[in-house]
Amino acid sequence: MSQIKNKKKMERFDIVSNAIITLFAVLNLFPLYWLFTSSLKNSSDVVKMPPDWWPKTITFSNYVDIFQNQPALRWTFNSIYVSGVTTILVIVIGSMAAYAFSKINFKFSNLIYIIFVSSLMIPKEIMIVPLFRIVQNFHMVNAYGGMIWPNVAGAFGVFLLKGFFDTTPNALREAARIDGASEWRTFTRIMLPIVKPGIGALFILNFVQVWNDYLWQLVVGQEKLMKTLMVGTATLMQDLNPNFAYKMAGATVAAIPMLIIFVMFQRYFTSGITAGAVKE
Amino acid sequence: MKLRRNIYAKENMTGYLFILPQMLVFLLFLVYPIIEGIRLSMYRINYQSETFVGFDNYLTLISDPVFFKALFNTVIFVVFIVILTVGFALFVASAIFDKNARYVSFIRGSYYIPVMVSMVVMSMVWSFLLNPANGLISYFARDMGLGTVNLLGNPKTVMPVIIFVTFATNVGQAIILYIAAMIGVPKDLFEAAEVDGASRWQVILKILIPSVKPTTVYITIINIIAVLKIFVVIQLLTGGGPNNASVTLMYYLYNNAFKYNQLGVASAVGVIMFIITLLLSVPQLKSMLQEK
Asked: Which residues cross the membrane (chain A) (predicted)?
């Protein structure tokens, strides 16, 4: 981190700003703290006023409920499957296209790339009616295909990975070709290993994005057993069960995998999110 | 001569083969829906039949006060959330970017975690906190002698509350982007400022904010587009109510499509949103493509 030498007099403005920012940072995490602790309370303690800041008696019965009376395990599997397969597809077809745009000289490559990148800003939700009808025609409503393919269509992977391929030296490709390696072999054996950090960033960002995708999965996974964890959890809100702790347990189950991913892969987020937005 | 032409042809062929899979998915699930959406917006669609009605669906929209309410609310959301996000993220990033690494990553993490756990989870927690019967916020309001408050049930307070919840959940991404941009600002600028005896406040105003202008443009645009399609928080917190006080374009589109079965009208809303998005993203696309 940069050390600007104004340590000698930390100005008052700076001290006050940082105090406010730290306070807000803690306050910002409070809803999550409340979510987690509420999920451990029993149905009467969770609505008790004045509230217990920490559950007096810790119970896991809400979690047992979620997994026994709701298909939360199936929802979790659906989410892992849909996010995982989507992300693998994005990486496979995205890295191929990114490599071509970065290293191969073919006709109209610039024009096609511009068209790809132009689509980055358009959220698929806007075209949800035609998209739903297309998926319906493929008989992919309530099927994993319908939950996966529209999420593969975006060109974010191409955009992100092209940035990484652009930093690799062209000489490598040339050398490989002189040695008689085919384009495919050059791509898979030489170039892909070099852009591993890019693939890592793309994997994490894309996985999280699909995991948290809501509107499209709500529309396409209508049967209870075909819902993703986000959509399934959200249906608990309409559940007649008046126990709030039980709904909070559902939300906690949906949140925890993302928290684990965040803690494990923090650095990938920064590099992935800033790609394309920040010039260094 | 012939050999060289062959090499070009082969290179072209290889290039196209490499982009083919992405191209197919892109055309089928992105380009085609846009074209189909424009077409559907001019049809009245029943279970089995489609009738061409020209711009009737758009006329229906113009005569529907709920559509205007949704449009108006969406504009309010966009303006306030974007201003709050850019302002607060600039404030946070410029105050912390040169502090020690552990502190920076603590701040970055605590603001980004709500982004990670998603709007769905955050909406559920906020709905619990704001619940008029047994929510923590309502309890504090009663405790302070404000009586029974129902922030989400009151047309006057519902918009500010949703603006706040959305802003607080999503500001982390803007903070990450600004911190990265500010760390990248050349150090000699700060050294020169120090030689001149500039205060921290002057450094922020004269050096930092101008240096991160491209990031500001990017954050503004992605946030406008993200807020434009705001849906989850509306569905889970208010259902568009009370009395359409918090209905948004995306929520209006969803209701028309999947509740009222007005697919043509919903498509027309989609087309309008598509045009807005396209116009908004032009400056960003220009800069993204210039980079290469």
From this structure: 15-36, 80-99, 111-135, 147-165, 186-208, 244-265
Terminal-residue alpha carbon distance, chain B = 31
Start-to-end Cα distance in chain A: 15
CA distance B290 to B292: 6
A255, A172, A28, A78: which is closest to B112 by C-alpha? A28
Selecting from B12, B111, B122 the residue whose C-beta is nearest the C-beta of A25 gives B111
Which of B27, B99, B108, B121 is the best residue to mutate to test the A interface, defined by the most A CB atoms within 10 Å of its own CB?
B121
Interatomic CA distance for residues A7 and A105, integer angstroms: 52
Nearest CA to A41 among A53, A30, A28, A26?
A53
Residue B127: its pLDDT value, please?
Answer: 93
B173 inside 8 A of chain A by CB: yes
Q: Which of B97-111, B141-155, B220-234 has the lowest mean pLDDT?
A: B141-155
Confidence check: pLDDT of B292 > 60: no
For the segment A224-267, what is each residue's pLDDT rounded down to a tens digit?
999 999 999 999 988 877 788 889 999 999 999 999 998 888 77
Length of chain A: 280
Is the Cβ pair B28, A153 closer than 8 Å?
A: yes
